[in-house]
Amino acid sequence: MQKVWIIDVLRHGETTLSHTLRGHLDDALTQTGWQQMQTTIEQMQPSAWQVVFTSPLQRCAAFAQRFAAQTNLNCNMDANFKEMYFGDWEGISTGQIYQQSPELLTNFWQQPTQYTAPNGESLLDFQSRIQQGLFLVIEKMQIQQHEHALLVTHGGVIKLLRCLAQHQPLDDLLKMQASLGQLYRFKITMDDQQQLQISEE
Fold first, then answer.
1. In order of start, what are the domains of the chain with their CATH numbers?
2. pLDDT (tens digit, 9 = 90+) per residue, 161-172?
3. Residue 143 DSSP SS3
4. pTM above 0.85?
């Protein structure tokens, strides 16, 4: 019988720079953002989670660390789960970018596999980083005999996981839903070649 791991992925809530492309900027949650995450968590059965993983950026880590402490769970930070790095577009709203570089932004939005933010991270590098993070998560869960984890991370990470789970082209990434403070459940299995297979529940 194939081993199945369940990873519930929580997107951080609203932040002080929510109207911009934050990428690797380390902006804090607003009170609303904190409440969005809290409300979502309260609707779940926290007792099901055996371990917590998080992006090290404070909009994820602050909540993850507090939640882990409250529930006596280990909290593991992993930089692989940071948001995509937007280079020169970090901290700028899409409206401003569109005024300055309408063609580049449109191309990036429609074909992110072909176009990258100036000096930013390519989508393929981002995918590779997330898959590496996921592999390390499963490795740790195997060692500790855990089957159900909470991962606190970013919209881009969730959109990528949803693309992979639904076998959608990566160019559809930005059309995927990943709402602030919401939770998405993924089932992970491993094939005979030790490749991770992702599906959405």
1. 4-200 (3.40.50.1240)
2. 999 999 999 999
3. helix
4. yes
